[in-house]
Design a protein that fits this description.
Length: about 160
């Protein structure tokens, strides 16, 4: 389970076309950090009793110098009003041309419905509108579905040169 960094050059023409019926809201609108923690638990540890604590959420997001509640988005199912997915964008003042994708996740019962694509499209549009020209995402090599998704969306593995 090695981490793999993927990159994508950004431009408006390449923003994925998505289903307009998928509702996307940022954290500064309706969802709350506890909603993110509940979704994380559904996605990554449904058999486990332990999940992320408020303290861990704070250290992963709220205490970062790049944190902005406008750049954490949730998809919300229109029928059930249930949170179905989330994605977060890091835009750093140190390197404003680079956007970093954090925690793209979709609840198991909502997968294969275009939610990840809609979340990524929202993130890409925001990143471009705020000066980013490149996105970076990291996933595990063993997460084949995540790897395939990112590659389908135009991400590539950086070329490493032999010394």
């Amino acid at each position: 389970m090695l981490p793999v960094k993927l990159i994508k050059q950004l431009n408006h023409q390449d923003i994925p076309k998505t289903d307009d019926s998928i509702l996307i809201q940022s954290l500064n609108q309706e969802p709350k950090p506890v909603d993110w923690r509940d979704l994380h638990h559904q996605v990554f540890s449904p058999q486990s009793e332990s999940g992320w604590t408020g303290k861990r959420f704070d250290s992963e997001f709220l205490m970062k110098d790049w944190w902005n509640p406008e750049t954490m988005w949730f998809s919300i199912d229109a029928t059930t009003n249930q949170i179905s997915g989330s994605i977060t964008l890091e835009l750093s003042s140190k390197n404003p041309e680079l956007g970093i994708v954090h925690w793209l996740m979709v609840a198991p019962n909502f997968r294969r419905q275009g939610i990840a694509l809609a979340l990524l499209a929202k993130l890409e549009e925001y990143a471009i509108d705020h000066g980013a020209t490149e996105l970076q995402a990291e996933t595990l090599s063993s997460w084949e579905d995540a790897m395939a998704f990112y590659l389908r969306q135009g991400f590539t593995k950086p070329v490493t040169r032999k010394k």
